[in-house]
Amino acid sequence: MLIVNHSSFVAFTLMGIPGLESQHLWLSVPFSSMFLAILIGNGVILFLVVTEPTLHTPMYLILALLMVADLISTLALMPKLLCLFWFNDRDIAAKACFTQMFFIHGASVVRSALLVVMAFDRFVAVCDPLHYNTILSHSLIGRLGLMALIKGVILILPMPLLLQQLTFCHVVIPHTYCDHMAVVKMACNHTRPNRMYGLFVILLVVGLDLLLIGFSYALILQAVIRLKSRDATFKALNTCSAHLFVILITYIPALFSSITHRIGRNIPPHAHILLANLYLLLPSVFNPVIYGIKMKEIRGKVVKCLCRGNV
């Protein structure tokens, strides 16, 4: 058994996708395609929101913050993953591993918090549309975005700090990135505080955020039921449709991955790792698509830019 003290530790080794090591080069094709789609999709919408004054509304400013969180998560994950697939570059320094962990998990927490902010935005848009711009001022959006960032930092920073106190018996991580629990399992001393803290973060982030989102939509549904006009009801529901799709794409893969990791004993390891990667990447891939399709302002700006390019 290899025992490596934390103070003299040099590097971890990422295995990639266990059982599919020989297929890494082929797997790089869909992963690199998703990476390219994320960079282009999120980059285009972020560029439009920043450069177009007509898109400087609360909803689009929150969307821009969500795109930034998606890009940070993707940029923390994909470069090392593609180096692993393309060049078999498996080694990662301990500090680099902990840094990657912080940005991947931190961005996920920020993303979840921003979905709560979006739910509040939709609640105000449906229940108090006349005061929408007054309530959701730019300063309030900035403060809410800052709170989401602080939440991500405060909740995730203890993870790498606690890991630095451990002694590791193993250095080969059966994963494509430095997932918190995957690194915890490499330790040979008492890891209960790390495990308990990881569970606490999951319950706080997913449980509390989903509760707040559910509460917002309960109030929205209550308001929609009171509407007498069918057109008004359809318009109110359509206002929330993009956000609902994003919630489903964000939380369903995450919950499914978490459930299969804990009770899916007969599921092969490579399925767990693929799910863990997809739950990080799918929201970033589909968020620009969903908002590009559902939001006519973004569709119009994209078409306008394309027409300019063809002139």
Automatic annotation (TrEMBL):
<feature type="transmembrane region" description="Helical">
    <location>
        <begin position="25"/>
        <end position="49"/>
    </location>
</feature>
<feature type="transmembrane region" description="Helical">
    <location>
        <begin position="99"/>
        <end position="120"/>
    </location>
</feature>
<keyword id="KW-0675">Receptor</keyword>
<dbReference type="GO" id="GO:0004984">
    <property type="term" value="F:olfactory receptor activity"/>
</dbReference>
<feature type="transmembrane region" description="Helical">
    <location>
        <begin position="199"/>
        <end position="224"/>
    </location>
</feature>
<dbReference type="GO" id="GO:0005886">
    <property type="term" value="C:plasma membrane"/>
</dbReference>
<dbReference type="InterPro" id="IPR017452">
    <property type="entry name" value="GPCR_Rhodpsn_7TM"/>
</dbReference>
<dbReference type="InterPro" id="IPR000276">
    <property type="entry name" value="GPCR_Rhodpsn"/>
</dbReference>
<keyword id="KW-0716">Sensory transduction</keyword>
<keyword id="KW-1133">Transmembrane helix</keyword>
<comment type="function">
    <text>Odorant receptor.</text>
</comment>
<dbReference type="InterPro" id="IPR050402">
    <property type="entry name" value="OR51/52/56-like"/>
</dbReference>
<feature type="domain" description="G-protein coupled receptors family 1 profile">
    <location>
        <begin position="41"/>
        <end position="291"/>
    </location>
</feature>
<dbReference type="InterPro" id="IPR000725">
    <property type="entry name" value="Olfact_rcpt"/>
</dbReference>
<keyword id="KW-0297">G-protein coupled receptor</keyword>
<keyword id="KW-0812">Transmembrane</keyword>
<protein>
    <submittedName>
        <fullName>Olfactory receptor 52P1</fullName>
    </submittedName>
</protein>
<feature type="transmembrane region" description="Helical">
    <location>
        <begin position="140"/>
        <end position="163"/>
    </location>
</feature>
<feature type="transmembrane region" description="Helical">
    <location>
        <begin position="61"/>
        <end position="87"/>
    </location>
</feature>
<keyword id="KW-0807">Transducer</keyword>
<feature type="transmembrane region" description="Helical">
    <location>
        <begin position="271"/>
        <end position="291"/>
    </location>
</feature>
<dbReference type="GO" id="GO:0004930">
    <property type="term" value="F:G protein-coupled receptor activity"/>
</dbReference>
<keyword id="KW-0552">Olfaction</keyword>
<dbReference type="Pfam" id="PF13853">
    <property type="entry name" value="7tm_4"/>
</dbReference>
<feature type="transmembrane region" description="Helical">
    <location>
        <begin position="236"/>
        <end position="259"/>
    </location>
</feature>
<keyword id="KW-0472">Membrane</keyword>
